[in-house]
């Protein structure tokens, strides 16, 4: 009887210890899962924060690039306008020079024309040749 009772006590003790070990194992597994869940949540939060930081940095750099591009574009437009203005001025100067040259040429031509009218005409029968040409012996050489 004693042995049976002792054996029963041992079995009960074994069963109790087994249940305790299973409960502790379940608690440990549950704690481990909870820790893993918290760790995943912490990592996810950290990744989200880093991603948000990267996005903000990207936006800041994009805004900075946009500002620099606008400044460059404004400068380029101003340079182009200045270049066109200088080209127009040069074109006006060329046109003025051409007009002045034309006016001067016309004036000189009119003076020449006026002077040409006042010049005496050369004699038509110069050097005793009729109509200014020689006749006779020199004709052979001129017709050859």
UniProtKB/TrEMBL annotation:
Residues 1-38 have a biased composition (Basic and acidic residues). It comes from Cyanistes caeruleus. Residues 1-46, 80-102 are annotated as: Disordered. Residues 2-134 form the Coiled-coil domain. It comes from the Eukaryota. PANTHER family: COILED-COIL DOMAIN-CONTAINING PROTEIN 34, NY-REN-41 ANTIGEN L15 -RELATED. InterPro entries: CCDC34, CCDC34/181. This is Coiled-coil domain-containing protein.
């Amino acid at each position: 009887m004693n042995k049976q009772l002792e054996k029963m006590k041992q079995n009960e003790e074994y069963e109790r210890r087994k249940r305790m070990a299973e409960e502790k194992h379940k608690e440990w597994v549950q704690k481990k899962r909870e820790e893993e869940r918290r760790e995943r949540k912490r990592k996810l939060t950290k990744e989200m924060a880093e991603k948000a930081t990267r996005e903000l940095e990207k936006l800041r750099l994009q805004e900075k690039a946009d500002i620099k591009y606008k400044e460059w574009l404004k400068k380029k437009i101003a340079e182009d306008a200045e270049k066109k203005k200088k080209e127009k001025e040069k074109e006006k100067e060329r046109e003025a020079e051409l007009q002045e040259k034309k006016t001067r040429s016309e004036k000189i031509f009119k003076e020449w024309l006026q002077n040409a009218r006042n010049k005496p005409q050369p004699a038509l029968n110069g050097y005793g040749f009729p109509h200014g040409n020689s006749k006779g012996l020199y004709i052979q050489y001129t017709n050859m």
